[in-house]
Amino acid sequence: MLQPRVPVRVAVINDYEIVVRGVAAMLEDTERVHVIELDADLPTAQPVDIALYDTFSARQAGADDVDEVLGNPLVDKVVIFTWNLQPELVAKAQAQGVHGYVSKGAARHELIDALLRVHAGECVFPNNHEVIEDANLPHPGHEAGLTMREAEVIGLITQGLSNAEIAERAFLSINSVKSYIRSAYRKMGVQRRSQAVIWGMAHGFTTRPRRWVRQP
Fold first, then answer.
1. To 5 degrees, how large is the angle CA 102–CA 125–CA 10?
2. Of 63, 11, 21, 64, which Cα lies nearest the Cα of 42?
3. Are 126 and 79 contacting, i.e. CB atoms less than 8 angstroms apart?
4. Which domains does the chain have, with CATH numbers?
5. Does residue 33 contact residue 27 with C-beta atoms inside 8 Å?
6. Rounded distance, CA 200 to CA 180, Å?
7. pLDDT tens-digit profile of 161-209?
8. 68, 72, 123, 175: which has the highest count of C-beta atoms within 10 A?
9. Strand 210-213 to 33-40 pairing
10. How far apart are the C-alpha atoms of 91 and 95, rounded to whole Å?
């Protein structure tokens, strides 16, 4: 693999501060990768080699949100960071023009290697389409014991989405959505959707546009 001559400049994109900060911490490798910007529900505002798009509670490959990142003239390449490895989504990402598609089950060195390969001109997509149910990364609700999947569903409930809309956004079946809701509610100590929304608002599941610019 051709090594980049300078560290790869990366922006991490997601709606949640805890998510972008967690991914940035995973990428702390000052010799090869510099995370120079964290964007919560805002477009990248300075030139970057790669925008790393985290799909937690976000729209998946093929959606307009990804098109907006791809169309940002300040972004050279786009890599999706996700647990949804279904072949249909991977194919959508390839057709959309995404440059990489990396599993959240990847180890730190695997994610960094994927970013370096994309920066060097490769297109990096998974060969193994095993669906990842959880990953050891910071997320809202982790202090209550919510898995990332449960937290994603609660985040979308807090945003006001219906079960059908959650299934479409998270690329899950309706039955899976209902199962995650039941298990999350038990951990949260709530019984009704209105209670879940109040709980979510009190536990970091609301979002607001913010940007953090970091020095290399």
1. 45
2. 11
3. no
4. 8-131 (3.40.50.2300), 142-202 (1.10.10.10)
5. yes
6. 15
7. 999 999 999 999 999 999 999 999 999 999 999 999 999 999 999 988 9
8. 72
9. antiparallel
10. 6
